[in-house]
Amino acid sequence: MPEYDASKLTPEQQYKLMTSTVVPRPIALVTTLGPDGPNAAPFSFFNMVASDPPAIMFSAGARGKSMKDTIRNIELLPEFVVHIVDEPNKEKMNICSTEWEYGVNEIERSGFKTAPSTMVKPPRLIECPVQFECRLIQFVKIGNKPYTMVIGEIVYFHLRDGLVNEEKMYVDTPAIQAMGRMEGRDMYCRSANDRFSMPRPDLPKK
Ligand SMILES: Cc1cc2nc3c(=O)[nH]c(=O)nc-3n(C[C@H](O)[C@H](O)[C@H](O)COP(=O)(O)O)c2cc1C
């Protein structure tokens, strides 16, 4: 069984071993607002971390000596909108991942349509099936690169028409057509059509 002392691996090797095995990863498409306008970028180091208050995290590496635009903007205005990326919007999401210089409006370049948010200033991308308006709870700086983990509280939920059965708060999850990120730069998976059910065991009766 191959085994490795992490301290003897290069950062690139560590990155490859993690990103090829921690799969599939959900993708957050994050909009922020900076001095030159709005910004959008996808992040797959992303998950939910609490439910009361509802909280999510995503983590952005540095770009050379500076922070990615998303982090620079949240440092200035501690608000953002997290969108769940679905298949119909995958090409637009991909355009948002281009490493443009600070101040370039990826939203215009990608063709996403926006609407004002309700509780925060950054706009939301209305074609995305799920949009969480968030306020920053805290930044956590990790490691040498460094990564900036952003923990945010969801203060307003938007879901596309037809997704929620409001009586029971059931969501038609396959209808979201969420994508997952797999290994390497370019691999993704679908979540809608390859699901299975496995009831959780009860405690044995005494
Ligand atoms: C699907 C996908 C997932 C990504 N996940 C991350 C991530 O978790 N962390 C990160 O730093 N960059 C990630 N990237 C790269 C960023 O999206 C890219 O660096 C982007 O240009 C950052 O934009 P910004 O400078 O406007 O914030 C990802 C790219 C793609 C296509």
Topology:
Blueprint lengths: L10 H9 L5 E2 L1 E7 L2 E7 L2 E6 L2 E7 L1 E2 L2 E2 L1 H8 L2 E6 L5 H7 L9 H5 L3 E2 L8 E2 L4 E13 L4 E13 L4 E2 L4 E2 L1 H4 L2 E3 L6 E3 L16
Antiparallel strand pairs: 1-15, 2-3, 2-8, 4-5, 5-12, 6-7, 8-11, 9-10, 11-12, 13-14, 15-16
This protein binds flavin mononucleotide.
Give a structural overview:
There is one protein chain. With 206 residues, this protein is α+β, with helices and mostly antiparallel strands. The chain has one domain: Electron Transport, Fmn-binding Protein, Chain A (Pnp Oxidase, Chain A, Roll). 16% of the residues lie in helices and 38% in strands. The strands form five sheets. The chain has a seven-stranded antiparallel beta sheet. Strands 1-15-16 form a three-stranded antiparallel beta sheet, with no helix packed on it. Strand 4 and strand 5 (54-60) form a beta hairpin. It binds flavin mononucleotide. The site of flavin mononucleotide has 17 residues, from strand 3, strand 5 and helix 2. Flavin mononucleotide binds next to strand 3, strand 5 and helix 2.
